[in-house]
Amino acid sequence: MQIKHNISLKPYNTFGIDALARHFVTIQSVEELKQALTLKNHPEIFILGGGSNMLLTKNIDALVLHLNIKGISIISEDDQFVIVQAHAGENWHEFVLWCLENDFGGLENLSLIPGNVGSAPIQNIGAYGIELKDAFVSCEVLDIKTKTLKTYTKEDCKFDYRNSIFKQEEKGKSIICNVTFKLSKKNHKLHTSYGSISNQLAEMKIVHPTIQDVSKAVIKIRQSKLPDPKKIGNSGSFFKNPVISTNAYSKLKENFPDIPGYTVSDTEIKVPAGWLIEKTGFKGKQFGDYGVHKEQALVLVNYGTANGNDILELARLIQKTVNQLFNIAIQAEVNII
Ligand code: EPU
Prior knowledge:
It is a single chain. A five-stranded antiparallel sheet has the order 6-7-12-10-11. Strands 1-2-5-3 form a four-stranded mixed sheet, covered by helices on one side. The protein contains eight helices and 20 strands. The protein folds into three domains: 4-67, 2-Layer Sandwich (Uridine Diphospho-n-acetylenolpyruvylglucosamine Reductase, domain 2), CATH 3.30.43; 72-225, Uridine Diphospho-n-acetylenolpyruvylglucosamine Reductase, domain 3 (2-Layer Sandwich); 233-336, UDP-N-acetylenolpyruvoylglucosamine reductase, C-terminal domain (Uridine Diphospho-n-acetylenolpyruvylglucosamine Reductase, domain 1), CATH 3.90.78.10. By secondary structure, it is of the alpha+beta class.
């Protein structure tokens, strides 16, 4: 375990923000993690996974623990299902590809989501009709205070839309070390009803899709709409899709007849923030070295050397403008540091 000092976090966050870590250590095992937590002269710690859901607006004056604990294993299996455990430092998409190579179904709709396995439960990652919670069994978590491992079941995690206990009461108290999933081995349940997936499969001339085909379709859609963080810095959706009352939605519909909405409950409707932002005219706008992605208004981008505060200011301007036009307060999905 080697501690480095004053190193740039640019390669460690997908927004590509050049902030410094006062101290930085790469963690390869739970034992190393426990050791790092007992280092007396570094009381402040900062947990870094894949760095794909954060906007750094300042240097990190703490000991950054870069979680790089690797390993994927089959815990048990029967004819129908397999229980697979992946460690926190596995890259999410590579883990999904490993599942597909083994013909294990359940995560294919979540192909190409940036970030690591250990961060995925924190915001219950989701895309194209599936959320992490749908295949989740449990995760093992290290309690920062007691340095003991505890297991969290699906119920314990209190998953919700881009939310879990790890964003709420457990925030800053524990570190996810591994995640266990239940995946299908045969009779895979495909989720292709999400409009763009069925269109993409039709375009690929696939009538009886496999889980691998669904993954390919998802990858194509994502590549067409979302910027590749290796080429253009970004953190995926910058904002959450707001949930508003059906009454408020009906009123908006009078002025904006084409406003999309997805029913959440009898009294609530989720509205795509990307649509709201597009209506404000921000889509595709570039300001210096940062801006709003041209294919998906929900994504803010860093074209190279933008700093986190520039992007944060743009985010606030977008929030204000959306609020003025629609009377809806959209919230950031990424963690502002
Ligand atoms: N839309 C616009 N303009 C835009 C973007 C979207 O009008 O610039 C409209 C689309 O036409 C469509 C609706 O908004 O009617 C929804 O768009 P899309 O299917 O692209 O999904 P989204 O709601 O914008 C969410 C997730 C994405 C996920 C996609 C696909 C959130 C905050 N975002 O985006 O997740 O990939 O659905 O399931 O829930 C992420 O979290 O980082 C992320 C990329």
